[in-house]
Amino acid sequence: MIRTDSRKIMPKDTFIALDGISSNGSEYIEDAVCRGASRVVCRPGISVSSETEVIYTDDTRAYLEDILVRED
Q1: Which of 6, 11, 15, 19 gets the most CB atoms within 10 Å of its CB?
Q2: How far is CA 8 from CA 29, 45, 56, 58, 69, in A?
Q3: What does each C-alpha distance from 58 to 7, 41, 46 come to in angstroms?
């Protein structure tokens, strides 16, 4: 499952760290990893302190939109 809310992460989910108006998704990466995320999608330069797979992209929102279009 793909999720953008770290509080809803279940084991093996993918967490996409979206930039928001009042917060930055990268602030919640460690929470997502602790909850069992197997993959994290975030901007380059962000460190993830685990063996979780990390996909770096300059635009996490566009990455999510691309995934949603392909699954449609």
Answers
A1: 15
A2: 12, 25, 21, 24, 22
A3: 24, 10, 11
Tell me how far apart the alpha carbons of residues 70 and 10 are, in angstroms, rounded to a whole number.
22
Q: What is the pLDDT of residues 58-67, one digit of tens each?
A: 999 999 999 8
Is the Cβ–Cβ distance between 35 and 6 less than 8 Å?
Answer: yes
Instruction: Record the pTM.
Output: 0.90
- Whether the CA torsion 18, 16, 7, 39 is positive or negative: it is negative
Whole-angstrom distance, CA of residue 62 vs CA of residue 47: 21
